[in-house]
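Regression test attached.
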Amino acid sequence: MKRTHNCGELRKQDVGKIVSLAGWVDRRRDLGGVIFVDLRDKYGKTQVVFNPDRNPEVHKIADKLRNEFVIYITGEVQNRPEGMQNDKISTGDIDVKVDNLQILNESLTPPIAINDPKEECKENDDFRLTYRYLDLRRPWIQKNLMLKSRFLKAVYEFFYANGFENVETPVLCKSTPEGARDYLVPSRVNPGKFYALPQSPQQYKQLLMIAGMDRYFQIAKCFRDEDLRADRQPEFTQIDVEMSFVNQEDVMEMFDKFVTDVMGKVWNFTPPRHIRHMDWHEAMLKYGSDKPDLRFDLEIHDVSDIAKESNFGVFKSVVAAGGKVRGIAAKGCIDFTRKQIDDLTAFVGRYGAKGLVWMRVKEDDVVETQVGKFFTTEQLNAFRDTVGAKNGDLMFFIAGPEKTAATAMGQLRLEIARMKGLKDPKRREFVWITEFPMFEYSETEGRYMAMHHPFTAPLPEHLDMMLSGNLKDCNAQAYDLVLNGVEIGGGSIRIHDPKVQEKVFRLLGLSEEQVKEKFGFFVDAFKYGAPPHGGLAFGLDRVVATLEGEDSIRDFIAFPKNTSASSPMDQCPSDVDLAQLNDLHISINIADKKK
RNA sequence: GGGGUGGUAGCUCAAUUUUGGUUAGAGCACCGGCCUGUCACGUCGGAGGUUACGAGUUCAAGCCUCGUCCAUCCCGCCA
């Protein structure tokens, strides 16, 4: 069997040629006499024509064709009659008069409509995943996978061109504390012992730097056993990178170039040659997030100083307790209904806000509010001027502990932008977030945790502060790349001084013995001449999805899992034979839930 | 672990003003007839349902109550 062309390439200049095509029946239109079939493959669609006058036997076979039959045809390319061209498809000027038809395979009626355009594909995710092999036939989802493939090609080209080596690292690793829950793999030959699947190749890539590899990259599968979201899968792919003898600026400079050379080229846009920087504290204050969406303004302002002078009990007590009051001017939102404001109040409640204070700015910039009696006119005007509100705006205020006030306000900012349609899907706003805190206090753990990971180096000027035990104000040499409010990558300069590393472990509450057991080999390696090094990792699926303006990464992964980390198609995870468990020295111990 | 939303034909959804009322509808898809230039072909007809599962309230439950399961979005979590 020989295809002379694919289904997306025949044009006017091919008229008169005898061609052979193979593909799937996308749609069949039977006009009683003549039958049209849209033949589809990865490359496109071509209309083929069965005419009873030209070839009655073939026409008779064509009568049996149904959607998703796999066929092979031979015929002559012809111009379509005047006025019958279809400008919606690239092959729309021509069609193929079929002289020979072979049904290579029949198909049951597909449970999902493969030929529907993307907007029409509203089946729920689980159903699509059950028939994923059919779902993947849809042209728009094939386009996603092909785009990712093209992107990966450009990624490889970029790193090879810049002196990076592609080195594979193990998938069977040692389980380590800190970070996400590990996926575990039992060892048969080592009874009772387990491997962990890598959450990322973090330690291996640092060891490669110690080994003198200088510049490393890998397209690496990573595994995290945590609850899932639309943009989080249990296994996902990182573009993982590490470089020796670099500082923060060197790494960010390299990836400014990466954004231009790879993302810009594949998606055909021109990013700024140098992506802007914003330090973490500024991001948290102005945007209430460490991944600000900078496609629109709606900046948040701190009004604690004004609030604490007022007679409004809520504001006063929050500030007195060390909390903050943050405000925002919702431009042109003065006509929000009471219901909308109530909904927004409930919305910010999900992020811990106890309430939402709102004020209208009317003609002559007069501030009107139900809680007006607690404030002087000067205070109301000060709120207005601080948040930058004008006639026609609505002001919102949230009071609470600093982190709560910031994040609740940040979410409110995003929600207002969504309601007002400010998230322009065509814009691409990149920003490096820098100077993250080294540590973050965990209420649940009752101790400080590494905000990035425990191998991250503090800012050189904050090292003494850290060594003296001031964890709160110590910032890290860490950086995240954010695009349109999505964290698409992140990294840090690593600690290369074993003494500093030991100190960080101690500050994180790990004893010398624990470190020895969990990280012994790693700490030892640093005693033999580790170069200064740093790197970062991009979430491959998230980069592609975000550049395509999609929130969910599932349509960019051929076989994703659903929210319960299972696959409806192959029913995995599943039970295994007792013999397998015995081999692994494992017995199942689950509480009786059913029966 | 917690919260929101949802589960009705193969798919996407509907089932009204006051807690319920007789035979659970539509579009797409499917099957059959007609139709020789359509391209989301048209047209006529047909088939298709344990209303997720279980219990309860009631003369009567798709609708009300409770439980279970599943999906999805979010919080926690995800260095």
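Expected vs. actual: identical. The mean pLDDT of chain A is 93.
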